[in-house]
Amino acid sequence: MKNIAVLFVLALSLVATCPQAQEAGAAVAVTGSDALVKKKGRFKETWVRPDADLARYGKLYLQVVELQFREKGVKPVENTTMSDQESEFGLSEAEQERYRQVATEALADELKRGAKLEMVHEAGPDTLLVRASILDIVCNVPPTFVDRREVYPSVVGKGTLRFELIDAETGVIQARLEERSRVLPPSRIASDVSQMPVYRETMWRDIERWSRNGASELRRVLDEAQESHGPK
């Protein structure tokens, strides 16, 4: 029951903070997943309906439907050192809510930059519904220490970004794009350490950039699909 209450609060927060991304319950039932065929594309996992024609859509409607945080296997803070790059740390309910807000706003803002599709507030005819999820979210930045010990992680966290492209009127899924990647600090020495310390207070800029990069890749897929009548 506690988890359900948290998800409800997060959904309300999403609608309040980002009008371009709508509450999950507003969409029609999604069908047609079993008809998707795997293809090569910008995303490692690209599954497309054989008869998909994204050029027929003129509008884009974004929903952020799920953020899934990894809650098992979290190491105690006292066993972690500055050189321990693989430790995983749980996020508080407030941090989970902020993660959703930061990611949602970055996704919506980046998708609005697309030249081919108009972002809209309501789904309807001629509209492509984008259902976004971030799955198996891992945080590698420890909670703030009392003594402000500095950590220089090579990885801020990880997450699997999934986009489902759905006909908003019929609910038939046209494509599913998915890829797991690392949330990186802005600068690293080689590949094993950040040049700057990373704290819980500063990791949001990295999560924002990671979310925006994922949306940018999706935007390129959509723009190319508008020209070639199919996701690439």
Helix-strand layout with pairing:
Elements: H1 2-17, E1 21-22, E2 37-39, E3 45-48, E4 59-69, H2 93-111, E5 118-119, E6 127-139, E7 157-167, E8 173-183, E9 188-189, E10 193-194, H3 203-228
Parallel strand pairs: 1-4, 4-5, 4-6
Antiparallel strand pairs: 2-3, 3-8, 6-7, 7-8, 9-10
Helix pairs in contact: 1-2, 2-3
If you had to describe this structure to a student in words, what would you say it looks like?
The structure is a single chain. 26% of the residues lie in helices and 26% in strands. Strands 1, 2, 3, 4, 5, 6, 7 and 8 form an 8-stranded mixed beta sheet that branches. The chain contains 3 helices and 10 strands. The protein is elongated. The model is unreliable at 1-19 and 78-84 (pLDDT under 50).
